[in-house]
Prior knowledge:
Structural class: alpha+beta
CATH class of the largest domain: Alpha Beta
Order of helices and strands: EHEEEEHHHHHHHEEEEEEHEHEHHHHHH
Strand content: 5-15%
CATH superfamily of the largest domain: set domain protein methyltransferase, domain 1
Number of domains: 2
Largest sheet: 3 strands, mixed
Shape: globular
Number of helices: 16
Radius of gyration: 26 Å
Amino acid sequence: xxxxxxxxxxxxxxxxxxxxxxxxxxxxxxxxxxxxxxxxxxxxxxxxxxxxxxxxxxxxxxxxxxxxxxxxxxxxxxxxxxxxxxxxxxxxxxxxxxxxxxxxxxxxxxxxxxxxxxxxxxxxxxxxxxxxxxxxxxxxxxxxxxxxxxxxxxxxxxxxxxxxxxxxxxxxxxxxxxxxxxxxxxxxxxxxxxxxxxxxxxxxxxxxxxxxxxxxxxxxxxxxxxxxxxxxxxxxxxxxxxxxxxxxxxxxxxxxxxxxxxxxxxxxxxxxxxxxxxxxxxxxxxxxxxxxxxxxxxxxxxxxxxxxxxxxxxxxxxxxxxxxxxxxxxxxxxxxxxxxxxxxxxxxxxxxxxxxxxxxxxxxxxxxxxxxxxxxxxxxxxxxxxxxxxxxxxxxxxxxxxxxxxxxxxxxxxxxxxxxxxxxxxxxx
Length: 429
């Protein structure tokens, strides 16, 4: 058994061996995997031997799975189901939290699983202190963290109003359980019912954008199965995917970031000073809010350009737009140049809010311990600033194209937009 627990400290190793013995005793099947520790708070699942594509890497029986229905069957869960009325966010997750909290301090069937759940989750940003938050100055992530903290606290308070006996668990205990379940659960179908579930062992696989397994619950034999979608040689990391997300989402929900992540975004919030005017509300784009990423076809680039074209036009110019759809078209060369320059000023404003320059971030990353709080913060900021730099480069090249090669936009806007797409590809490096 020891051979499957490589480079693991004695205390944790004992808990893991106990867990694995428990899992095998209760019908779990995982003959070809081992566990490794890469560093502080970082472990992974590896192939112990060759694994063929399509093989069952892990099989977990229903009796080992904790799901929201089990929380609903507790006395607290029953009350919450009866009186919730939609006031609690992510209710199915809360039901799993309720079950874990009501059983974790007692000798029970799931004790070996509870013993290997991480107790130190300080890498999740909702648990950072003000000094650590200062590293994130300039990023919209600070607002997202605050909103998530507030949401969790409100859920805790709502639960106590319905079930005063829930006070036996502190807010600290609740936040731990809420974070653990939120970051490790699976959405599965059990006998036709959608469930939020904790699946022991299966939740230990690390993230990769290109997962090495497919998973789901097989109602025919009552097992949760992880199947390999590639062949594995011995000692290869076996990974799942947590979805293709930007670093702010990975950071907020899972407590890590990726050094190379094309999905990174920045938050945009543009409000026209006349947005309260009925004319603007009914006919013109008064507000642009959302995410801007490097794919100009899928994110807010078009909306931003429309907003700026209108914002930088007087009423006389606006009247030249006969239809709302025409806002997507430049009015003329000189006006489009003004629009692009205004966009560049806005991008510079976003850049100026960050605590660190792009150069400084790269310097600090050289010495930062991988997956430390500092490393995650810097990697997040780097990804956001790279999005800003990408658009600054796109604006620069667009201005150059318009100034030197585009005499008129009469019936030529399509070619201009095609050029923007090409410039976008040139800017990705």
